[in-house]
Target: Transcriptional regulator
Amino acid sequence: MASNVNPTVRRRRLGMELRKLREDKGMTAEQVAERLLVSQSKISRLENGRRSISQRDVRDLCDVYEVEDRRLIDSLMQMAKDSRQQGWWHAFGDIPYSVYIGLETDAASLRTYEPLVIPGLLQTTEYAQALVRGAWPETAPADVDKRVQVRMHRQKRLSETENNNPDLGPLRLWAVIDEAALRRHVGDAQLMIRQLEYLIEQSEQPHVTVQVMPFELGAHPGVNGQYAILEFPDASDSTVVYIEGVTSDLYLEKANDVQKYSVMYEHLRAQALGVDKTQEFISQIINEYAEKVE
Model:
């Protein structure tokens, strides 16, 4: 069963604490790896939260860093234990972007730019099914259903608080969507009408903002592709820039990288249509689809 503890977030927090201990000790990751007879990449993955951390790993690292505070060691050991529990998404089996789901589950806000498709958190079930079948044509029907179920479960963050953190309200979502995503036929015209109507409906929630980037605006800061910026309620959790890939995803956490993408997103928001004009624009495209149905 899924745990009430978010293992992804626990790994990130534990990794940051371990990195701080190493830096306070004045050691490099290479030096630590030599002491423990492990690869430098293992130390790096432990510190960036991309690898599961065992209590033995924590014990060995605390020995290297000569940590004497028993309360600190116990706290780190508990975080390591929590990080090995399973989140709700593990019930669906092997999910290729499980790290992202873990981050999204505990995020306070998400800013995303989508150039080709409707953002996953704003998709209807039938749109998601058609999209997954088209994007991964060799995927078995059972795996298509699994991906869609996970996507629908993720959408609960737009209407519910996160159980791991009762103080964390619905996810604050800001989505800039390129016109191409609205005009790309995923399924038939009727399906697209229902999807775009749902998009308008969701955008009317106070914590959801949708803006469209029309073709006529030409080149803009998002032409390089999709990305998302996740921010968290805990000040100790660094902001993450997520860039989706075909075989692997990219997570950027360095302050300089996050700053560049944040500034780029501000330019996107400034250039895109305002909220009211966006709804008018989407309604116009709905009418165009309706003419095709007739």
About this structure: The longest helix spans residues 7-25. The mean pLDDT is 87.
